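Weekly puzzle thread! Below is a chain. First person to post its structure in token form gets bragging rights.
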Amino acid sequence: MKISIVIVAAIVLIAGAATAQLPPQGYIGLFTDEAHTTWCVTGTPFYSFDMYIYCLPSDQGMICAEFAISYPTNLIQSTVTPSDSISVALGSLPDGMSACVLNCQWDWIWIFKQFLVVNAADKTHLEIIKHPDPLIPAIQFANCNPGYPEEPVVVFTNLYINYNAAEPECGEPGTKSSTWGAIKSMYRE
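Winning reply:
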């Protein structure tokens, strides 16, 4: 009986560790909350909100991120606040950002927060786009392997303005699941 309990406990621990593994490719996303669970906002213009830029490293970790953000015309951009984890940031969000953190990351981390004001009722969205510099034409992370090689990342979600929670854009992100097993299965050959 005791052996059965130990075996079941070991299986539960192993299954828990397997679901906590990082994906083979990193993710970057725009969110409206610190818990990185919401990417849609709605209200009556003028209203404001904070946008968080979150990164999830690949199974190789993350030390730097390079990307840009395309802003719609119905937003007033305001203060950009870097995370306390940022060691260096070059550029700007709309013109291209290259930012590094103090230590290699192995879990979700927000790197920037921006205060935004919506000034019209149009449905639009903020979009993570490639860094426009011809030397960095990508959305990418530098991972934690020796030499900090660059690797492409997946846009987890953009941020939708004046969409309500019932609309498809505000549902599950492109992975259609919240488990890493489902995300990993997308990359299996």
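Puzzle host: Confirmed. Bonus trivia for everyone else. The chain has a mean pLDDT of 85.
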